[in-house]
Amino acid sequence: MGTYFLFGSEDESSKPLAYIGQTEDLKQRLRSHDANKEFWTRAVILVSRTHSFTQAHIKWLEWHSIATAQVIRQNS
After folding, report:
1. Number of domains comprising the chain
2. Euclidean distance between CA atoms 15 and 65, whole angstroms
3. Angle, alpha carbons 63-65-69 (nearest 5°)
4. Domain region containing 52
5. Alpha carbon distance 73, 53 (integer Å)
């Protein structure tokens, strides 16, 4: 269970892209994105070392990350 970020670009001349998501099964979700999303070359995942994240925690982290990314995008 965790929140994740996929980073990459469509080609060398395009702006960097980021995809933010959350899932209960990181391994399966990343496999799915590997098969269906070709832009990403790096992934960053946020998980709890003590396995204490709840669904509410990861949904909030995803929401907060997307909101922050949108503010950064608007200001750049």
Report:
1. 1
2. 19
3. 120
4. 2-74
5. 28
